[in-house]
Structures are given as structure tokens and as C-alpha cells.
Amino acid sequence: MRIGYACLTKGVPYTDLKGVTSRNATPERLTEVIGHNLNTLGNILRYNVEDGLNMFRLSSDLIPFGSSPVNENRWWDHFKPEFEELGSLMRESGMRISMHPGQYTVLNSPDLDVVSRAVDDLAYHSLVLDSLGLDRKAKIIIHIGGIYGDKEAAIKRFKDNYLRLPERVKDRLIIENDERLYNIEEVLEIGTSLGIPVVFDNLHHQVKVGDGKDSMWIREASRTWKEEDGIQKIHYSQQDPNKNLGAHSETIDVEEFREYIDRNVHQDLDIMLEVKDKNLSAKKAINSVLDTGRIENLEREWSRYKYNVLESSPENYQRIRDLLKDKGSYPVEEFYRLVDGAIYNTSPTQGTVINGIDHVWGYFKDVATEKEKERFRRELDRFREDRLSLRAIKNSLWRLNEKYRDPYLMKSYYFHI
Asked: The domain 3-288 belongs to what CATH superfamily?
């Protein structure tokens, strides 16, 4: 089982993609931004490999205006060495890669211009995966589309337009159920008739149908996957209790995730998490279902979270320290319950925040120059007087860390979440 996340990486430096507006999309600017994004992708992949995150969805924004006439660059030729290097890293690490075009990529629209743009967009996504040298196990996920007043006609348009796609696109395409228009049973009928693998999305299903038969539908979807398509994949997310039905949660509740897997997953498959905190939840999920969980996994996580916890809840900070003293245990659910309780459910006070700042400053106080020490004292005073934001003082501390490169802090989430 592989567990992955989508598009963006949280809490890790040098992993931000750039964009460009159509007004500024000159060939030179596009080349600059594409180069930055490919370098960023390399940083993300290396982080994923190091942390055992071997499933990842590439952002459709990797190449700005990738399917638009605005971008006239032959980026697949210009950056061929970069694509080859990134693809080698993906293949050698066994990382499963996918892409998911946005809501405007609609194959079954009655508007021929919309369909034409959708075909162009799917060709762009396929070209990215081809340029990386990935086989057809690297997939492109789409929804069926709209109903437009006649579902039967809309399904027929989808089927007809799918059959007109280039083979290299059809080989990569997979389809999933949604929460409003096409339930899993309808998507399975379409996928079976066309030979398209089907992805079961649990939250979409919960919102639209909610029959509690996830295990059955996962098994039914497994029959649409052929060996050359790779291992079956599903999408998993949890409802945000404070938002509208269907909204993804900020983070994954480990206990709920484990219960879902135990109840519904009875075959080898890959799970793409759709959750706001991205890789942070993917790592939580992986640690929660390890067959032989070791305390070292939680200690490694603690080294990254500890100052985020400290600045919100010194009580949870101490409880986690006590929890990890038993080296023969693996208290994964309690560990993440305490971490989540501090980060997502506790409002820090100025006192707890300053406590966290002081602990992090301790890494620099003996190496910083007098000028840097004086600047820190001024910024801390301004923070106490509510004249400087916490983000600003964290950015200042991060710049010090970029200079002094403390190996412990370089991997801390403190500066970035």
C-alpha cells in the first residue's frame, strides 16, 4: 500500500511553485518560471523519497499555460534533461505519479469549444508524464462532467469524445465519482463499457449516496484495473466538521483513518489523500498503518513538530515528551491526538508563543553576531507590543537558520506551518 498527497508540500522549505499572469507570459518569463518549478519539483521529490512518501500528484500548474496558446515555448524540448532527471528519480524510488486536471476540463460539454480545450488540456497533462518517461501507470484523473439537462445524452457525449482521444491520452485516463452528479455505480458503468479504470472517492460517495458500502464499491472498482494500469488507487478524505458538506478536513484524524482502512480495504491498493495539510497528513497516515510501527517514527515526527506544539500548548508538549519515553511502545494515535490538539484546536497566547520563540532563538544565541542579537531583541520587543506579527519574527529566525544551517531546525515545521 502506498499513501500519497496532492500537488503542494507543507512545512518544507523551497517547495513553492510559481505562476505567471497572461499579461506577463513572455517566452523569457515562462522559461524562468518553468525552470523554477522543475527545480522545486526536484526538491519535493527528494523530500518525498527521504520521508517514504512514494505517491504524489503533480500540480497541473507545473507548466504555466501548459495547454494554452499563450505558452508558445517548446518546454518539453528546452527542459528535456531536467525532465529526464526528475523521471529517473520517480522511477528509481518507485514513486507513483498522477495528475488531476481542474474543473474546467470537461469532456462531455455540449459546447464544442469547451471539449476542444479539454482535449488540449488532457494532451498537455499526458505530455508532462511522457516527458518524465513514465509508463501508463502514471495516470490522469478526471470527473465525468456535467448533466446539462439530460444525463443519458451527457454520458453518451463523454463516451463518444473519449473514443476520439489520442491513444496516449486514453492509456492514462482514469475516472472518479463525484459528490453531486455521477455516483460510483454510474461511473463504474461508464468505466466498464470503455475499459477505463475507476477511482472510488470515499467522501464524494458519502455525500452523494452514503450507503455505507464502501468496501463493496472498492472491490467493484478493482475489476476495472488492468495489470498495465498499475495497482488500483482510491481517493480518501474526511469531512471538515466546520464547513459545508464535502469540504476536506484540515488534517487527517488518525483513528478515523485506521478504522476506515480496517473496515473497507481488503486488497492491495494505493491511497491518495485529499486533505488541506497535504504531506503532513500523508506521513501521519503512513505511520498509523505500519505493520511494525517503531517509536523512532514518532520521534522523527516529534523533532519536526515540537516547537509548533510548544508555542500552542506547553501541556501537550510535556505529555508528548512523557509519551515517547517508553521505547518499546508505539502510541501513534495518542501522539497525533496531542499534536493535532495543540496545532489545530488550541489558541496560543503571547506567552506560549514567546516561549517557542525563545527556544528556537537558543540555537542561534551563541553563534549570532552582535548586530543579529540586537535585531532579534528589537523584534521581540515589537512583537510583545503587538507591532510585529508572529509570521514576521518567524521569517527573521528562518533567515538566520538559512545562514547557520542548523540540521535540526532545517527540518522543523516551526517556520513554515
From this structure: Divalent-metal-dependent TIM barrel enzymes (3.20.20.150)
User: Cell for 127?
Assistant: 505530455
Q: Which residue spans within 144-259 are E strands per DSSP?
A: 173-176, 198-201, 233-236
Which residues, other chains included, contact 345 with Cβ-Cβ below 8 Å and sequence gap of 6+? Answer: none
What lies within 8 Å, CB to CB, of 370 at 6+ separation is: none
Q: Give how far the C-alpha of residue 279 lies from the chain's centroid of Cα atoms, to the nearest Å.
A: 6
- pLDDT tens sequence across 147-173: 999 999 999 999 999 999 999 999 999
Residue 291 has a pLDDT of: 66
Angle at 46 between CA 43 and CA 52, to 5 degrees: 135
Dist. CA 135–CA 171, nearest whole Å: 9
What contacts 24+ positions apart, CB below 8 Å, involve 385-393?
390/353, 393/357
Strand partners, 233: 270
Q: Where are the domains of the chain?
A: 3-288, 295-410
Report yes or no: 90 and 53 within 8 Å, Cβ to Cβ. Answer: no
What pTM was estimated for this model as a whole?
0.93
